[in-house]
Design brief:
With about 300 residues, this protein is an alpha/beta fold. It contains 10 helices and 6 strands. Strands 1-3-2-4-5-6 form a 6-stranded mixed β-sheet, sandwiched between helices. The N and C termini lie far apart (about 75 Å).
Length: about 300
């Protein structure tokens, strides 16, 4: 068994690596919290959020040649630069942030979108042929189609032959949907209405892939279909949303016929700005009667 004094010494060493410049931890009986990084987010337990932008902005190199320049560089990219090392391995803080970002990415894929959030946005829900998230990840083909029951729900609850049909799909990031759609969708719908464009009845697709929009366009007779869908999360962000827009979409059509607006998140294209831009883009697609590479011709 390790003695209490040895345990306290190990904890002190770990804390000093997690929070650069922090004083060694005192024994458990009189321990004080490490000095927080200015502006860093904290949990309800008073612990600093090591994945916060403020924490990630702190260089971990012991003796950088130009610390100010390194800080400016870190402020311009989410890449893991200036992380330093401890012998042949990563610093403890770098490894913990990496594992936390990886956990956030996994959660984005496997957690479900909050149904109450979709209801608050006035969206009804249907599911693709995927029974659960595991099947969704392993069977992309089932995420592109619907059961006859789901198709009947779409037919009965949606406006027929709209100029534009909006879908919200969880895709590979439920986190992206929750973080962006509440701000993006109202701006998009208002923008289309202001332009005199019929936007149909938007709804939510659970376990949906991009090409699910093709089946919906055929069933409803939509001229343009736009899917707001969570993108595959990375270690830089798990909140990236994209809009896939297709003119006269049909099942089996080439992917090159889709127009894409990507990187919609707080550190990319803000959701509100994206909503306004997508409305303008849809207006252009309707006038040109083309999308994807055909729009460039």
């Amino acid at each position: 068994m390790l003695s209490q004094s040895l345990i306290d010494q190990i904890v002190s060493q770990v804390v000093s690596q997690i929070t650069p410049g922090a004083a060694p931890a005192a024994p458990a009986s009189s321990a004080a919290s490490p000095a927080p990084v200015p502006g860093a987010e904290q949990s309800s337990a008073g612990l600093e959020d090591i994945t916060s932008p403020e924490q990630k902005a702190v260089p971990l190199l012991a003796h950088p040649a130009d610390r100010d320049a390194l800080i400016r560089m870190k402020g311009r990219t989410p890449a893991r630069i200036g992380v330093g090392r401890a012998g042949p391995r990563l610093n403890t803080k770098t490894m913990l942030i990496l594992r936390a970002d990886h956990a956030a990415a996994r959660d984005a894929v496997f957690l479900d979108v909050d149904e109450k959030l979709m209801e608050s946005l006035g969206l009804f829900s249907v599911s693709t042929r995927c029974a659960d998230k595991n099947e969704f990840v392993t069977r992309p083909d089932l995420g592109r189609d619907f059961s006859e029951e789901a198709l009947e729900t779409i037919r009965s609850r949606c406006q027929k032959n709209p100029q534009v049909q909006i879908l919200v799909c969880d895709g590979l990031s439920s986190t992206a949907v929750g973080a962006n759609v509440p701000d993006l969708l109202p701006v998009l719908m208002d923008g289309l209405k202001a332009k005199g464009i019929s936007a149909g009845t938007p709804f939510f697709v659970k376990n949906g892939r991009v090409a699910a929009q093709d089946r919906v366009a055929e069933v409803l007779g939509a001229t343009v279909v736009c899917s707001l869908i969570g993108e595959r999360p990375g270690l830089a962000t798990a909140e990236s949303l994209s809009a896939y827009i297709s003119y006269e979409a049909r099942v089996g059509m080439p992917e090159a016929r889709r127009t894409v607006v990507s990187n919609i998140h707080k550190d990319g294209i803000p959701a509100v700005e994206a909503g306004a831009y997508i409305a303008d883009l849809i207006e252009t697609i309707l006038k040109a009667r083309a999308s994807g590479v055909d729009l460039k011709k």
